[in-house]
Amino acid sequence: MKLLNGTVIQFFKFVAVGLLNTAITYAIYFSLVYMGVHYLIASTTAFVLSVLNAFFWNHKFVFKDESGGRRNILRALVKTYASYAFSGFVVTNIMLYILIDVLGVSKYIAPFFCLLVTVPLNYILNKLWAFKPAKA
């Protein structure tokens, strides 16, 4: 039961970090789109900057290494970018293209639909891969 409670608490911490990160991502995205930048370039820029933010908070707050060992920060950062590249970049941009160009959803609303897929996917990838505790 303790493991389940720990996982639930960890997921809610991840969601809290995600809310902050989402606000940063969309502030960058909306600002760039408003300035006339193409939505895919705006999305890419927001992605690069927001993953750094997500990595910092996930490393310090969500997936803390409590084993007393030392986590390889560079490896965790590369894995974080890889996991977010798949879920937060590739999946998001495919969904944005389909939602905006195919289905005609507003480019200001479409990103929110992406969250329904990317948040759970990001959590799983980060927990089981990017921040997986090192083997003893």
Helix-strand blueprint:
Elements: H1 2-34, H2 39-62, H3 73-102, H4 110-130
Helix pairs in contact: 1-2, 2-3, 3-4
Q: Describe the biggest sheet? A: none
Instruction: Give the total of domains.
Output: 1
Over the alpha carbons, how many angstroms does the gyration radius reach?
16 Å
SS element count, helices: 4
Spans of at least 5 consecutive residues whose pLDDT stays below 50 are none
Which structural category do the helix and sheet elements fall into? mainly alpha
Strand content: under 5%
Number of strands: 0
Order of helices and strands: HHHH
Please give a structural write-up.
With 136 residues, this protein is mainly alpha-helical. It has one domain (2-130). Helix content is 79%, strand content 0%. The protein contains four helices and no strands. The protein has helices at 2-34, 39-62, 73-102, 110-130. The longest helix is centred in the N-terminal third of the chain and has 33 residues, at 2-34. The radius of gyration is 16 Å and the shape is elongated. The model has no long low-confidence stretch (mean pLDDT 83).
Short description:
With 136 residues, this protein is mainly alpha-helical.
